[in-house]
Design goal:
The complex is a heterodimer of chains A (504) and B (495).
Chain A (H helix, E strand, L loop, with lengths): L12 E3 L4 E13 L38 H13 L7 E2 L2 E4 L9 E4 L9 E8 L2 E14 L3 E3 L8 E3 L6 E7 L6 H18 L11 E10 L3 H8 L9 E6 L2 H20 L7 E6 L4 E4 L12 E2 L6 E2 L2 H9 L5 H11 L4 H7 L3 H11 L4 H18 L12 H12 L5 H14 L3 H7 L8 H14 L1 H9 L5 H10 L6 H13 L1
Parallel strand pairs in A: 12-13
Antiparallel strand pairs in A: 1-2, 2-10, 2-11, 3-16, 4-5, 4-15, 6-7, 7-10, 8-9, 11-12, 13-14
Helix pairs in contact in A: 2-4, 6-7, 8-10, 10-11, 13-15, 13-16, 15-16
Chain B lengths: L8 H9 L5 H14 L6 E4 L1 H16 L10 E5 L26 H8 L3 E6 L38 H8 L5 E6 L5 H7 L2 E4 L19 E6 L2 H11 L29 E5 L9 H16 L3 E5 L7 H16 L20 H12 L2 H14 L5 H23 L4 E5 L16 H5 L6 H6 L3 E8 L5 E8 L4 H15 L10
Classes of the chains: A alpha+beta (504), B alpha/beta (495).
């Protein structure tokens, strides 16, 4: 693992009416594989197309149609596995999960129950400066997404859109290592960051490209430690699964609400029944998805239409050796190479585009200054600008680099630089040309500054007297000189001259 | 005019190439024969317009001297194959009115090799049956009748329409599919040749699935040579079917020398079943003698897990079928039940499937659902899978002893009367497949060759089982057996 030092947080304790309780959470994250075509058909995965326009015969479950594996999805899953420090299973196989639903045309979902493509791995999840924890991954398997049922277009009829049917998903299953709602969302964000780095999932939660099923149980303090030593789940409480969450905010809410519900039941002497539930954010409650009679028996069995996948080790090695630098490694490198604080390194490596932008700016320049400009000025400005992302930045890394160059060569002052930044940000153009055209260059000519200072001294004898009595008031003259030069005077020179003429 | 329809592919090919007659003439001879044979209920969707168009095209191709293997040969297509724009219903009400927008790989290959489509052939619903009595189109009638008895007989199943049509000279050949014996058993019941290739030899793309790990399409023809010709046209790797194997397709016909000297033919003792009729026993003995006389070495072999084959099959096949048939839900195509006020999606599924599927299909969907259910999976499906591996292992052991092919009876009896099995325990019907099922479980090639008549005057067949991918070898041994048996009998036309 990484060499960053961190402390693992203590689990949050929830006080019930009678006892203290702890949360145990495991997540099943469904990440849409970034690929042009679906898992088993050539149909497009493009989001937002006309309903039922991205549908191959096999996606529609037409008679006699057969699935053919899309190799791109396999390599994306392997890449993701490598990014999560996970075991890549050279042998994996597909199974059918059988159930009836109108948006599942085949009547089964092709998934990987018995032999997933990726085995155990782990992710380091940062929680706050100096605090982080390792969450273990149980497995990642590939499966088909279902379509979309639409029930609110017509009072008597439901509609089905099969565009999403058959799109490849990676189901990333964690071990029950997550101990609070905050850890749950931090974990999802970390997965998202890694997958976005790898280009294996765009992580767009709004479009449903990243969803989570949240398994929640509560236990008494000490129980979890028993589980940890024995890996025996009977030490933990009965879990409920909250399905299909696609907002971090709702996940956090749902966990807290579900924990309270379970604690309430347990403290009043009841038992938790293992079931799948849905979170209703409007009512602020979770409720069972289906009754016991409707509980599915998925009748998993190996899909006879597909041969098992046998990956070659050198194929995996090739992906592995071409793997991009991952967020944790980059963060460590930024912190050490650029001498940044862990926090700054974290901000600058939050996503790949930011890190690339920063590295382009910092190349051959003062690193701390570059970091400050990217984090404070650029990010601040982008945030004010209706939350633009780095990829939408109107100011390129070379423009920002040029501004920093003008500062370090003392051609402009830090204050002028901020004005210049705003001009380049809103109007574009070459920073040095703007400096020239608009006369923003810093005045470092001693005679010129001295001349300006002499005029001010001459016109303000009272201030001169005061300043001579109390040297602290000499600063007034500095301000006046800056004002009369339109802020362009080199503040260091002004200061020196004021000191010479009025203080000493 | 129906005389041309009696030709084999081989003879017709010669005649077409020599311009003795045209494909149009040959085709219209078949179309006439089909018109006259409605009583057999073999063809269920005639496609004369397509046939005439394809025959005309074939004649043009032939006139240019370009003669792909099946050029101008009129054939029938089992209803299980999806044919573009032509009803493809798997003989089920649930696919009522279904006309696919795509053409199965196999039929496309046949049209590419110049074959002419006469129409779609009756079959057991979803290929589930051994008598062609489960079809939504009604029973198919065997063109054969017992001597001095006009009771109507079953042509076997599930490719009963194909068998009946080829035997009655309604077409020169037909496609069939074989999941547990559905090509070989009906071929034996009507005195024709039926070949099931090695699993993966013929693409399953566009063939309505019954049990995906067992289904394999193959030719049903009037003789072994025709099977070789037609198999070549049907075979080949298909990227659209992941279980199709990329292995060269030989010119099967060129292997038909009839010379089988030194070949080792295995005779498995486990196929000598309790209560097997003397006639079948005798047929088998005669067949063995014929191969021996032709110079083959006869070796007694053992396939110890044979007795488990049928139970394994009736777990594995229904399990896969229960899943494969889930797509027939009334949502997108085929039959949808008319719903009552207040009915929801569950009622739509229940009513649609209850109305759309026949009894045998429902039975197998129920069995399949049961054996895959939580708590039963290990005891049934998983155990069956393990035993299947043992059955396959039996064959591998035998072939490791340099056995070239295995000779067995094709069926435990000759054709039985339509309706005779309707009231009996379904297991009695399943026993029809006792000799053929192990071949599917092991993915091997098998061929049923007619070799004689029983006392009632009905045809009987023997089965040869080949080594994987060695259909050519198997065909040559079958060719030798066919020559020795000299079975040229035809049913007396009564329809």
């Amino acid at each position: 693992m990484l060499d960053l030092t961190y402390d693992t947080p203590k689990p949050t304790t929830i006080s019930g009416a009678k006892y203290d309780w702890e949360l145990v959470i495991g997540l099943e994250v469904h990440a849409q594989v970034a690929s042009k075509a679906k898992l088993f058909s050539g149909a497009s995965t493009l989001f937002g197309a006309e309903p039922n326009s991205n549908v191959a015969f096999v996606d529609a479950g037409m008679p006699g149609m057969l699935p053919v594996i899309n190799e791109e999805c396999i390599s994306q899953a392997v890449k993701t596995g490598l990014g999560l420090n996970a075991q890549i299973n050279l042998y994996s196989a597909f199974d059918r999960k059988n159930y009836f639903y109108p948006d599942l045309p085949q009547g089964y979902q092709i998934s990987q129950l018995y032999h997933p493509i990726v085995g155990e791995g782990e992710v380091l999840v940062y929680l706050e400066p100096g605090k982080a924890k390792v969450v273990r991954i149980e497995r990642i398997h590939l499966e088909q997404d279902a379509g979309k049922s639409i029930h609110d277009m017509d009072p008597n009829t439901s509609f089905v859109d099969l565009n999403r049917t058959g799109v490849a998903l990676m189901e990333i299953v964690s071990k029950p290592d997550i101990r609070s709602a905050e850890e749950a969302t931090a974990y999802i964000s970390k997965l998202r960051q890694i997958m976005r780095y790898l280009g294996t999932c765009d992580g767009n939660m709004q479009n449903g490209n990243l969803r989570a099923d949240v398994n929640i149980s509560v236990c008494r303090p000490g129980d979890y430690e028993k589980y940890q030593t024995s890996q025996d789940f009977s030490n933990l409480g009965t879990r409920c699964e909250i399905k299909n969450m696609n907002s971090l905010k709702f996940i956090q809410q749902a966990i807290d609400i579900e924990a309270r519900r379970q604690i309430g039941i347990l403290e009043s002497g009841g038992t938790i029944s293992q079931e799948t539930r849905l979170y209703d954010p409007d009512k602020g409650e979770t409720r069972p998805m289906r009754s016991k009679e409707e509980a599915h028996d998925y009748r998993y069995f190996p899909c006879p239409d597909l041969l098992p996948l046998n990956l070659k080790q050198d194929w995996v090695d090739n992906i592995s050796s071409n793997l991009i630098e991952l967020p944790d490694q980059k963060r460590l490198r930024f912190a050490t190479d650029y001498m940044l604080s862990d926090y700054d390194a974290g901000v600058l490596t939050a996503d790949l585009e930011t890190s690339k932008y920063f590295e382009a700016v910092a190349k051959g320049r003062d690193q701390k200054l570059s970091a400050n400009w990217v984090i404070n000025e650029l990010f601040g400005r982008l945030k004010r600008d209706t939350d633009k992302s780095i990829t939408d930045s109107p100011i390129t890394h070379s423009q920002l680099g040029e501004i920093i160059d003008l500062i370090t060569s003392s051609e402009i002052s830090g204050k002028i630089a901020k004005d210049l930044f705003e001009i380049v940000y809103t109007e574009g153009g070459s920073p040095s040309e703007i400096v020239d055209k608009r006369g923003m260059r810093q005045v470092s000519n001693t005679a010129e500054i001295e001349n300006a200072l002499d005029i001010i001294i001459r016109e303000n004898p009272n201030q001169v007297t005061k300043a001579r009595e109390n040297p602290k008031l000499a600063g007034w003259f500095v301000g006046q000189v800056m004002k009369s030069t339109g802020g362009k005077a080199n503040p260091k020179l002004v200061n020196e001259l004021v000191q010479k003429k009025l203080v000493s | 005019m129906t005389e041309l329809a009696k030709l084999t592919i081989e003879k017709a090919r010669d005649g077409l190439r020599k311009k003795t007659f045209s494909s149009a003439e040959l085709t219209s001879s078949c179309l006439n024969a089909i018109q006259q044979a409605k009583e057999l209920n073999a063809f269920v969707h005639d496609t004369p317009e397509i046939a005439i168009k394809q025959a005309t095209d074939a004649d043009k191709t032939l006139s240019k001297g370009d003669t792909p293997s099946m050029c101008g040969i009129p054939i029938g297509i089992k209803d299980l194959f999806c044919t573009k724009g032509v009803a493809s219903q798997a003989a089920s009400n649930i696919l009522q009115g279904f006309k696919p927008e795509y053409e199965s790989t196999i039929t496309q290959k046949l049209w590419d090799s110049g074959a002419v489509m006469l129409g779609k052939l009756n079959m057991d619903e979803f290929a589930m049956g051994s008598s062609n009595e489960t079809s939504a189109y009604g029973d198919v009638v065997n063109p054969w009748q017992e001597a001095n008895n006009n009771k109507k007989l079953s042509p076997g199943g599930s490719s009963g329409g194909s068998a009946s049509a080829v035997s009655a000279d309604l077409c020169l050949a037909a496609t069939g599919t074989d999941t547990g014996g559905s090509i070989r058993q009906p071929a034996a019941f009507v005195g024709i040749t039926g070949l099931k290739p090695t699993y993966g030899r013929c693409s399953r793309w566009g063939v309505v699935a019954f049990a995906s790990s067992l289904d394999q399409a193959g030719p049903m023809t009037k003789c072994v040579r025709d099977a070789a010709i037609m198999l070549e046209a049907m075979s080949g790797h298909d990227a659209k079917d992941s279980t199709s194997v990329d292995i060269p397709v030989p010119n099967f016909e060129s292997f038909l020398t009839g010379d089988i000297r030194g070949k080792k033919i295995g005779v498995p003792k486990e196929y000598r079943m309790d209560g097997m009729s003397d006639e079948i026993e005798q047929l088998w003995t005669e067949g063995t003698a014929m191969l021996k006389d032709a110079g083959a070495k006869i070796v007694d072999i053992s396939l110890p897990h044979t007795k488990f084959a049928l139970p394994v099959y009736y777990v594995v096949a229904p399990a896969e079928a229960s899943s494969n048939l889930a797509r027939y839900d009334g949502v997108r195509f085929g039959h949808r039940s008319s719903l009552s006020l207040g009915d929801g999606i569950t009622e739509m599924y229940e009513k649609t499937r209850a109305e759309g599927f026949g009894e045998e299909v429902k039975r197998r969907v129920m069995i399949g659902t049961y054996v895959l259910s939580a708590g039963f999976y290990d005891a049934y499906y998983n155990r069956a899978r393990k035993v299947r591996t043992l059955i396959k292992g039996d064959f591998e052991n035998v072939f490791a002893q340099n056995i070239d092919a295995i000779l067995t009876p094709a069926t435990p009896s000759s054709a039985f009367g339509l309706g005779e099995m309707k009231e009996v325990d379904p297991v009695q019907m399943y026993l029809n497949d006792v000799f053929t099922v192990p071949v599917n479980l092991a993915g091997l090639p098998g061929i049923s060759v007619p070799t004689g008549l029983d006392k009632k005057g009905l045809p009987l067949g023997l089965q040869l089982i080949g080594r994987p991918w060695e259909e050519a070898e198997m065909l040559n041994i079958a060719y030798s057996l066919e020559s020795s048996a000299s079975f040229f009998d035809k049913p007396q036309k009564w329809w």
